[in-house]
Amino acid sequence: GMMPTAPAAAAAAAPPPAEVVEPAASKAHANLQLILSGEASIGLSLEFLVRSNKTDTLILTGMKKAADQRNSLCHSAIVLAHSLMNAGTTADSFLRDNLEWLSRATNWAKFSATATLGVIHRGHVKQALSLLAPYLPQAGMSASPYSEGGALFALGIIHANHGHSIRAYLLDALRSAGTNEVVQHGCALGIGISMMGSEDEDLYEELKGVLFNDSAVAGEAAALAMGLLMLGSASPKAIEEMLGYAHDTAHEKIIRGLAIGIALCMYGREEEADPLVTTLLHEQDPILRYGAMYTIAFAFAATGSNAALRKCLHVAVSDVSDDVRRAAVIAIGFVLANTPAQCPRVVKLLAESYNPHVRYGSAFAVGISCAGSGSKEALELLTPMLSDPVDYVRQGALLASSMVLMQSADHKADSKLSKHREDLRKVVGDKHEDTMTKFGAIVATGLLDAGGRNVTIGLTSRTGNKIMPAIVGMGIFSHFWFWHPLLLFVSLAFTPTAAIGLNADLRMPQWRFKSGAPPSAFAYPPPTSNEKKEVASTVATASLSTTAKAAKIDKAKKAEAEAAEKAKAAERAEEERVAKEKADLAARDAMLAKLTELHKRGSLSGVLHASLTGVAAKSEGGGAADAGDAMDTSADAGAAGKPSLEALVGEVREAHARGDISTAAVAAVLKLQPDKADEAEFDFEVLENPSRVLRSQERFCSLLPASRYEPVAKGRTSGVIMLKDTAPDAEEELLPLPAALAAASEGAEEEEPAPPEPFELPA
């Protein structure tokens, strides 16, 4: 906040009263800066992803059991998949619970494993350095260069496209890396990803120095990072220097980094890139022709340009190099990113090519342009490739299918999504499957449920504008074919599908709105379980066993047995009645506890919580504490103020009908009823702020009739929604920050200590 003296001081310094900065104006100014710098949206996305995380850890545990323990590639794939599933959610408990298993990652696998922390904590800028402290380079101590390099890359991912706060730190780390090419590699990637598009001369020159040392590993990352810094600048100097060095060096890795780096310089430049594309296509070195295709991909992304498509199609069928042909087809996916319906038609013939690289490219193109669309044509094109004779084509088809089916909400047993989940499970568990395909299946499993199931891959916004980091991330991700750590760039393409309502102070108030479709229409996937369903009701079995024995007993004994059985039955009925009462009370208490927990999370207003639980809202002084003590003394004493089970269920349902409590919260409470009769589904859903709203769901969303808050922009149903408060004088109930941003835990887990324990045992 402003200091109270500031306006006065300003007035003293500048006599004309017009200069006085009103506190309100300066507050608006500060908020505007937060919004324009992107800080506000990064913080809000993080809060949404942490709060709404629905990752199913059993899927990871299942893959860990199913995949071959000795296979380091599968091990690495599971670590990568874990980071995609938990991208931006800060949830890394799976790694902490499997430290011994995690420590098997060595060398570059260790680099990637450390870098995954950046994906998991992406946007968690306030704690970035303390989270990564155990792995970052420390003066006078040399840990493993692989974990140091990975941590620097992670630091870049956390600050992706928003790196000013760590620029100095990374520059210093690059200078201190000496000649350690692994640390240089991680540092260069971190600089590129965090400072993309900044055209920062000093960083560029520093990276150029690393490039000119001609070390293959460090040079490749430096070249890529130079391209990221100069993203979309079309800088003739940068392009000339990079192309010049590509002709001088003998290292394929460096030429490959330069090829992509040169392409990045032309991001979004459309026809301006044509002369460069022509130059690159005339190069002898296929790697530079490969760069020509990526230049088209970045320059014409989401434009649908016919000239660009013609060029790609021509190269896809005529170049002598498989890599170039594959890249040409992938580029088609980028050019058509804004018109997903066209892509399957354009690559249909290429998908049937005799050349496996072209088939792989067409799978990827469809994955990129139809991501998150659930497109039927896309899936029809991909299905035959799932049983392709070539292992990497199957890999591409699995990855692309996951991309297309991201956030599909059709969980019926015979749906495309369920079949895809089954395919993935089969491939991961199949002893005879090729490692390359398995790697694809594991990563594809991570993509399918990315970001706690709250993100989709979006290269363009809902209004059709290009999302720069997403296009860049996807382009570099498609290059993981040559270098696995680049796989993590895909996290830049993850766009949260959320509706986040904000008040004038950019805080989230308690607010609910309506989705006019049954909850199942847009539901999260049901949790997997590893228990077999138990079938048996005790009463039935008891009577069966007696009947079986009774057959062997003669008449007299039988009469006796029957009388005993009757007495037993009466006794049992009485026991059952008592047990039912007990169960009802236990269920009611569990429901009350659940309501209190929901209230703490900000899912329930104070007034409603008080009226449902029968606990008076905090009266002056120690009222609340007394109520708490009363509950503890004995069931009867506490029960006085509590509603009965039926009354409570009725009240909760009524609150829902009024829109005062969200459907998910009602389900969580009603789930605790002792005899769960199958509930009839609601035909609408009440969602609470912030909520996952799928792109296909937006048109069903509307305000609730008595809503206190209304969107400033009429009809906004997703993204960040600025809200007008229609009762500005009433007290506002704001949502508490989730515990992980102070460890968000569902229910009963205890809060985690802030700086986490280092993972590795010292080597």
List keywords for this structure.
35 helices; 3-stranded antiparallel β-sheet; 763 residues; mainly alpha; 55% helix; globular
Detailed description of the structure:
By secondary structure, the chain is mostly helical. 55% of the residues lie in helices and 4% in strands. It is built from 35 helices and nine strands. A hairpin with a 7-residue loop joins strand 8 (709-711) and strand 9. The longest helix is centred in the C-terminal third of the chain and has 47 residues, at 555-601.
Range of helix content: 55-70%
Strand order of the largest sheet: 6-3-9-8
The class by helix and strand makeup works out as mainly alpha
Beta percentage is under 5%
Distance between the termini: 48 Å
C-alpha-based Rg, rounded: 30 Å
Low-confidence stretches: 1-17, 532-545, 616-639, 743-755
Mean pLDDT over all positions: 82
| Secondary structure tally, helices | 35
